[in-house]
Amino acid sequence: MFDLELSYSILLVVCLLAACGFEFVNGFHDTANAVATVIYTNSLKPWVAVVWSGICNAIGVFLGGITVAMGIVNLLPVESLVDQNIAHSLAMVLALLLSAIFWNLLTWYFGIPCSSSHTLIGSILGVGLAYSLLPDANEAAVNWGKAQEIGASLLISPLFGFSLTIILMFLLRNLTKNTSAGDGLFKEPKKNQPPPWWIRTILILTCTAVSGFHGSNDGQKGVGLVMLILIGIVPAYFALNPGFEPGNLGAPLKKIEVTINGLDGSPLSKSDKVKLDSSKVMTTRLLSSLRGVSSVSSIPSQERFLVRKDIMLLNSNIKLLSSNNELAMSEADKKTLTDNMKAVRKITDYSPRWVIVMIALSLGMGTMIGWKRIVKTIGEKIGKEHLTYAQGASAELVASTTIGLSTWFGLPVSTTHVLSSGIAGSMVASKGVKNLQPDTVRNILIAWLLTLPVVMILAGTLFLIFRSTF
Q1: What span, in angstroms and rounded, lies between the C-alpha atoms of 56 and 296?
Q2: Of 52, 190, 192, 453, whose Cβ has the fewest other Cβ atoms within 10 Å?
Q3: Mean pLDDT of successive 10-residue segments in the chain (470 residues)?
């Protein structure tokens, strides 16, 4: 398969199955957050809720695009880590997969809402940092610009969910004060009795939105993980988009070449001059490699990964040069470079349809299994009172909005942390901080703080062990 030896082909299949396993675990770990409110308000029967949520998650993967997926791929500059030794690529992939799955299963077993996003990103960073410790490592092992961007998203989103839910609860309480709607919204659900139809509709719609947006965001993380595996192990087949015509890159590459050649690099530092000069060389090389090429299959297999590497390094250099004030680049030149690099990146930023289908099925099926532990924590153990209709609807409305906006901007976000912080915010809005259960909140915070360092150390250690063993 893919011109690999039988043993490597088997390991590739194992890695793809493990990626599906990660997304399957992500399904029952994270999606429990989406169904907790409709279950605890008696809006839907548990199995109806999880089946419906699973379907919405799968649809979300198809509709979410690949922006978040490429953010995951670009976090680990695989172009720098991959060499001719396939065993080294397998060491990288297996280390991050095993670490992510282990931590997800461990926190699920103890019923602790934990972010699959943190877990995956921690694994990727751990592998990248471990690679930088190798004696022959001479290129960047982590895209720190992308890491900072993702880190800010993961940090701000739960604070946003907590604060906005409090504000929404305050507005609901004041807008429905002394009305029959207000009396209904803030009442504890009666045992085994569904809420009034209009409240039930709101709760089902918010559950649907959270599930769909979860699929569009977290599903893309699975797609990105599979693309890391494929690019790392069989780059000749997956480094470039086979459905894209390389000849279409001639015009944007020519504009990039003209703009870069027109820049005065004399004010730059020695290292930045090297970046500018290498960018000129890479642009010329790409124009030469892709001139007159009608399809990706026409590019020699051993050169496809080199084309990808040139494009990704050129993109990185252009971003750094555009932000360098010493270069005094005009806004028009910056726009020319940015717009044309987007056009060029269409040959590297893609995912095969079968990958999206595989991840959608894994996430959707995982949603329907193993959800009870996390649902119980969300529904019963964050606050001291039973979840009211207003609390459930507010938390899910804020969560769906936050996740949807994050997907729009191409940023991975934690569904777990956004929704659990929203539930906590709704409890605080009702009766203050005393309405929170300190043990549960402490466990969630500890998991939130420990996830990145623990998974990074685990993934990095496994990577070094596997690389020395394979």
Answers
A1: 35
A2: 192
A3: 78 89 79 74 83 88 85 71 69 86 81 74 85 72 71 78 87 74 66 78 87 85 88 86 88 91 83 87 90 86 87 86 79 90 91 93 81 60 69 83 82 76 81 73 76 89 86
As a whole number of angstroms, the distance between CA 378 and CA 342 comes to: 41
Q: Between the CA of residue 349 and those of 74, 78, 205, 228, 341, what are the distances in Å?
A: 10, 13, 33, 12, 11
Taking the C-alpha atoms of residue 115 and residue 154, their distance in angstroms, rounded to an integer, is 9
- Three-state DSSP at 88 gives helix
What does the domain layout of the chain look like in residue ranges? 6-237+353-469, 240-347
Q: What is the per-residue pLDDT for 341?
A: 92
How far lies 452's CA from each of 32, 118, 223, 411, in Å? 22, 6, 21, 17
Measured CA to CA, the distance from residue 204 to residue 374 in angstroms comes to: 19
| Concatenated DSSP letters of 316-383 | HHHHHHHT-GGG---HHHHHHHHHHHHHHGGGTS---HHHHHHHHHHHHHHHTSS-HHHHHIIIIISB
Q: Which residue is listed with tokens 């090389």? A: 285
- Global pTM reads 0.82
Burial class (CB in 10 A: 0-12, 13-18, 19+), 306: middle
